[in-house]
Design brief:
single chain; binds benzoic acid; 7 helices; elongated; 212 residues; alpha+beta
Length: 212
């Protein structure tokens, strides 16, 4: 069944390159990004895994754990990780789930049969500390993802989780944000002491509240 925003992320037990995990226990108290790649020893996936490894400190700063999945074995992941380090210069520094029987891929609807009935698509699930799904992305095998974009949306999601704000088109960390329409002007003056500008009665902007 499709996993939709706001759903509790399905829990599962899995073998990973860093040992067996129980997903919700493993991520307890953190945000998590569960992402699939179609197959080990493939070029686009190699670039993606190296890039994510190079950005790990950025995810750590955001209290966000990373976990990758493909329908290959742990042994295959371990051999491939050597190639990833060789080609990209980055050592994989997060667990990779081995899912040769596709149990977790099916649980997360990562196999889209009209694309491939054996490989996963490139799925991304951003999951909050409450275990609820906050964002999903689906890319085809032919298209590598931008993990800079995933960091950007993580910043936006975390900001909206902490403050009654939304982020406008092309928002980047540090830009002004939009005050939620559910907040009255009076309440907005209390919540956003830096003030706000009303562009329309339904459209008020304020400096990013968690920045000096
Ligand atoms: C790749 O990562 O390059 C790839 C993986 C599966 C199918 C096609 C390309």
């Amino acid at each position: 069944m499709a996993i939709r925003l706001g759903d509790i992320s399905p829990d599962f037990e899995a073998d990973t390159t860093t040992g067996p995990i129980s997903f919700h226990d493993w991520k307890r108290g953190s945000w998590a990004i569960l992402f699939s790649h179609p197959k080990d020893f493939t070029p686009v996936c190699t670039t993606e895994l190296g890039r994510v490894a190079s950005l790990k400190a950025e995810f750590d700063r955001r209290n966000t754990k990373l976990i990758a999945l493909s329908v290959d074995s742990i042994e295959s992941h371990e051999r491939w990780a050597m190639d990833i380090a060789d080609v990209t210069g980055s050592t994989v520094n997060f667990p990779m789930i081995g899912d040769p029987d596709r149990r977790i891929a099916m649980l997360y609807d990562m196999i889209h049969e009209n694309e491939s009935d054996t490989l996963t698509v490139r799925s991304v699930f951003v999951i909050g500390p409450d275990n609820r799904v906050k964002l999903t992305l689906t890319y085809p095998a032919s298209t590598g993802r931008s993990f800079e974009e995933i960091l950007r949306v993580l910043d936006a999601l975390q900001l909206s989780a902490d403050y009654a704000v939304a982020t406008p088109v092309d928002w980047r960390n540090g830009d002004e944000v939009v005050i939620a329409t559910t907040v009255s002007d009076e309440d907005a003056r209390r919540r956003f002491p830096k003030g706000f500008v009303s562009k329309k009665p339904y459209f008020r902007v304020t400096p990013q509240p968690n920045r000096d």
